[in-house]
Amino acid sequence: MNQIVEMQTYIAVVEAGSITNAAKRLGITKSVVSQRIQQLEQRLSAALIHRGRSMLLTEAGQEFYQQSSKILAELSELEESISARHDHIGGSFRLSVPQAFNIQYLAPYLAEFMQLYPELKLDIESSDQFVNLNNGHYDAAIRMGELADSNLISQTVAQNHHYICASPDYLKEYGMPTHPNELLRHRGLLYLSREPHGMWQLPVGGKKAFFRISPYLRTDSGHQLLAAAKRGLGIAILPSFLAAEAICQKQLKVILSEFSPSGGNISVVYRLSNRASPKIQALVDFLSTKIGHPAPWDSQIQNMLRQES
């Protein structure tokens, strides 16, 4: 068995949290994953994983995970370095992308990108959870929002505007808030990773202030927020790419527009060692051109707001 394949399989099991999830990530059967882990443990003469209801690593397993991640990251950096010298866009390209944006727009964009570069083989994982880019499993990630300080490089593709929205039926029944101070009297549709406790951070007079809204729905799904808002269940903060169609069809109305929160940017993020990667730069250039400035969904919303004013 190829030692690199064994390392990749083991890392996938550790990061996915189970053999079942690792098999899905790798695109192979559970039996193949189990067999590779067993062969690896036999070759090392050491148990790496405690077998039980939950997966726990042994001391040897933790050490092997850390060292294997480092080795694979260095191997990936070597490949990128050689490829960059020859300005060749091909080979494998491992991407992590946000689920909601992928469903709405990114999937067809990436399919077109692959057509432009037929020697490029994409491995795409769709999740709204941030992945660890330092372990070498991913070449880059497309991320949305304000990015925390880190040792990663980011390139902005487009702005990620957000709007406070509610349906006409909701506003008819509960009234139109004219200031964030009034949000406490309203039903809040909350995005878990941003506002789990019903506190919205909104700009007031050039500064950020916190305002409480009564939690009615909490979810980690942007599409769930959108569906609930369109049904008149409450007020939600939605990204423009997700809300544009509903706003233009007058299923949702933008409210408190002067207090719209910052959504940061749509960015391509990657390790410093990949800064010369031609395939990453090709992706940044392609998405920047494809989305444009402003993005088409932002233009649609702005046109709608001008018509209403």
Automatic annotation (TrEMBL):
Residues 1-58 form the HTH lysR-type domain. The keyword Transcription applies. CDD domains: PBP2_CrgA_like (cd08422). SUPFAM superfamilies: Periplasmic binding protein-like II (SSF53850), Winged helix' DNA-binding domain (SSF46785). Keywords: DNA-binding, Transcription, Transcription regulation. GO terms for molecular function: DNA-binding transcription factor activity; sequence-specific DNA binding. GO terms for biological process: DNA-templated transcription. It holds the Pfam family HTH_1. Belongs to the LysR transcriptional regulatory family. This is LysR family transcriptional regulator. It comes from Acinetobacter colistiniresistens. The lineage of its organism: Bacteria, Pseudomonadati, Pseudomonadota, Gammaproteobacteria, Moraxellales.
